[in-house]
Each structure stands twice: as C-alpha cells, then as structure tokens.
Amino acid sequence: MTIKPTAPLSPGACIGIIGGGQLGRMLALAAAELGFQTHVFCPEENAPAAQVSTFSTLADYEDKPALDQFAASVDVVTYEFENIPVSSVTHMEQHKPVFPSAKALEVAQDRWVEKSFMRDLELGVTEFYDITSPQDLRAALDATNGEGILKTRRFGYDGKGQWRLSASSQLDAIIAELDGQAAILEALVPFEREISLLVARNAAGDTATYEAIENVHKNHILHTSTLPARLSATQASQAQTMAEKIADALDYVGVLAIECFVTPQGLLVNEIAPRVHNSGHLTQDACHCGQFEQHIRAIAGWPLGDAHAHSEAVMTNLLGEDINDWQNWAAQKATYLHIYGKAEANPGRKMAHVTRLRARR
C-alpha cells in the first residue's frame, strides 16, 4: 500500500526519479523550475537525467539496500519508464509515497493484464488471445483469418517483441524467436489514425486532461505527434471520458498516457503508459502547463496546472544521426529544440525532439 502524503510538498523538497533517460531528464528540469531538488536512481553512468539532477545514485533497480538509501533521501518517488521490477516499487512503497503506484505498473507491464483490465472497464479493445504455446498461436490465427499482431506480454517497446503475422509468415522461425515467452495475439484493427490521450490526476482525485494528440510511426518508432488530433466533438468527448475512467479505476497519481486507435466504431485502447510520454513532449511548448510540470504537480500534491493548448503543434523525434542537423532546427522560428545529452547517436535511438508551433485556428 502506497504511503499517502499528508500535505503538499514545499519548494526545497526532494523528488526521487527512478530511471535515467530523457523522460527523467525533463521531469528533473520541470521539478527544478518549481523549486524542488531531484535524486535520480539508475544503473547507467552519465545518464541524461543524472546530468541535470541534484543528486544521483548509480545502482541496479533490484538493489534493495541502495533503494532503501535512495528512499530515505527523498520525499516522494516516481519513475520515468515502466520496465522496472514491480517488487522494487512495492519495496519503496513501504517507506515513501510512490506515484504512480505499483498497481498501475503491474497493469501496464503485462499486455494480457492490460487488455483484460480495459475490457473489464467496458472500454473498446481489439480482440486478443493468450499465447503460451505454438498450438495457442495457431488456434488464435485460425480465429483471426490468419492475420494479427503477435506481442510478448512483457518488456516490449518501439516495436521490439512484436511481429505482424500473415499467411506468408514463417511461424516456426517466429516461434523460435519468441523463445517460450508468454505472448498475446491481437486481431488487426482497420483504424483511421492513432492518437494519444494524456490525463493528470492527483491524490485528491482532481484531473486535468489534454486534448488528444495524433501520432505517426515509422518502423514502429514514433515519428511525429500533432496537436490537436483530427477528432469529431463526439470522439473528443469520448476520449476525455475514457482517459478519466482509466485514471480513476487505477486510483492514479501523475500523468497517464493512453494510446488509442480511432475506428469507425469508436475508440479502441491499444496500450497505456504509467508515466509521461513521448507523444506528450509537445505539451511543454504548446500548453500552459506541460506534461512534465503537470506530473511533478500531481505527485507533489500541488493544484494541477492548466492543460489547455495555447498553440497548435507538431513534434518530431530526432533519431540517431538526425541530431547532427541541430543547427538547422535551432535557426527556425517558432521552433523549440530539446536535446537529451546522449553521447552515442545509434540508429533509431531517440536523441532529441523538436516542436514547431503555430497559432490556433
């Protein structure tokens, strides 16, 4: 059970961040703007978040003595990505408030649990099947006309641990690559576009919901995000209701991201992320209160900020050697460049993002 804070944190308090990537970096910068100290815990040296935090601990996510020392040094704990052991979060929950809670992490880490959770909330999801053996996979493909998306139940991101299957797929090779991992098969969805919903919720149950954001992926990695998404008034209302329903069901504290498909039949939930999200980066520059400040406000017990967008925006991820064009981006008007401080520009690695604004129409 998460320890509940008794009062809002005052400036000068210390916020613990599990994870040292670019999301942790931007959380630490937002916390500093509000007068907080930050302490980053991660196993990587010279991590992007550690470069801008007040304190840092270099240790494994399952190092319980190090986690105890870390928890003793902070006033509240959060995390910047979901592939950390739930046991580490529950361990820290015995000592300090941890937001989001281990419950949200458990739901998000397992695709079968996640999809089942959404179905139990009577929210739209694509048909899905539990795959624990080659026989399960072949039976599920029979039910989906030989097509579908095979995903490992745990630890997949940016297309890793995913296979699009069709009649021409080499199932034996894919089964060998799966190597006994539990998986799900999702039926293909004829969708019009992909969107993200971002909702912030604090411990009092107050919520602030951002306008839906439209996403385009290339090679399974987010390429651009655009605000606002192309939705009808009915779809926009459905999106807000859906986001708040999920956050309430999880008793969520912080910023929650929900990725959805827009279909003629309505919105279908694809997956959730219990954290700030790549698609929400544009809120930093386009909204009165961006997702990173909003998350800090929520976990610190502060009033939530204004999530309204004052501008339209397009965010573009800069991957690998794209970062070498930073001078061109920096010279453009109404354009905001955010560089993550990563030393090696490996292919497909998120090195920075750029957000271009224009007046609302």
Protein topology:
Blueprint: E1 14-18, H1 22-33, E2 37-42, E3 55-58, H2 64-72, E4 76-79, H3 86-93, H4 102-109, H5 111-120, E5 128-131, H6 134-143, E6 148-152, E7 162-165, H7 171-178, E8 183-186, E9 193-201, E10 207-209, E11 213-218, E12 221-227, H8 233-249, E13 254-263, E14 266-273, H9 283-286, H10 291-300, E15 311-319, H11 326-330, E16 335-339, E17 350-359
Parallel strand pairs: 1-2, 1-4, 2-3
Antiparallel strand pairs: 5-8, 6-7, 6-8, 9-10, 9-11, 9-13, 11-12, 12-15, 13-14, 15-17, 16-17
Helix pairs in contact: 1-10, 4-5
Assigned CATH superfamily of the largest domain: ATP-grasp fold, B domain
Number of domains: 3
Report the order of strands and helices: EHEEHEHHHEHEEHEEEEEHEEHHEHEE
- From the spread of the alpha carbons, the general shape counts as globular
Structural class per helix/strand content? alpha+beta
Rg (CA only):
20 Å
Helix content: 25-40%
**Distance between the terminal alpha carbons, to the nearest Å?**
46 Å
Instruction: State mean pLDDT (0 to 100 scale).
Output: 94
* Percentage of residues in strands: 25-35%
Number of helices: 11
Largest sheet: 9 strands, antiparallel
CATH architecture term of the largest domain: 2-Layer Sandwich
Record field, number of beta strands: 17
